[in-house]
């Protein structure tokens, strides 16, 4: 599968089979995170890999609303992305640690798609209880999470903007020349 195919096929998976993901697949997923570009190549992120069923279920309790309960009961891994804002940069009041983790996460979800695995960006959570549960130091931010497992669903593609709505040429509102 090439990159564009992975981009086109990738979906947010909210239901998973009770099936294993190999340590080799996990290592490939994490390698995609490790190789991601970042602001001034500072690599401000770390990941916490939850593999213990009880700990995954506890995280599910802390994430009551997002995603559904079955994710935590069946998914073999849950990955938590943290970032050190001080290791990244700020320019024009834009903190780059969020972008850095976003790029690392995108690398990882595309690698998962290429392996036939599912992911779902989880960004709605209360950081404090999760920080305490996982022992994340106070100076770090929990930015995003994702389950990693074998999909039990194949959602249809969601609508996307047309190219005319998305891209302008040379100035705002000027359509791309064909």
Helix-strand blueprint:
Elements: H1 3-9, H2 23-34, E1 45-50, H3 53-62, H4 69-74, E2 77-83, E3 90-91, E4 94-95, H5 97-114, H6 127-134, E5 141-148, H7 163-166
Antiparallel strand pairs: 1-2, 2-5, 3-4
Helix pairs in contact: 1-5, 2-5
Give an overview of the whole structure:
The protein is an alpha+beta fold and 178 residues long. The protein is built from seven helices and five strands. The strands form two sheets. Strands 1-2-5 form a three-stranded antiparallel beta sheet, with helices on both faces. It has a two-stranded antiparallel ribbon with strand order 3-4. Helix 1 packs across helix 5 and helix 2 runs antiparallel to helix 5.
Order of helices and strands: HHEHHEEEHHEH
What would you call the shape? Answer: globular
Taking the sheet with the most strands, its summary is:
3 strands, antiparallel
Helix/strand structural class: alpha+beta
Q: What is the typical, i.e. mean, pLDDT?
A: 93
Q: Measured on Cα atoms, how large is the radius of gyration?
A: 18 Å
Distance, first to last CA: 29 Å
Strand order of the largest sheet: 1-2-5
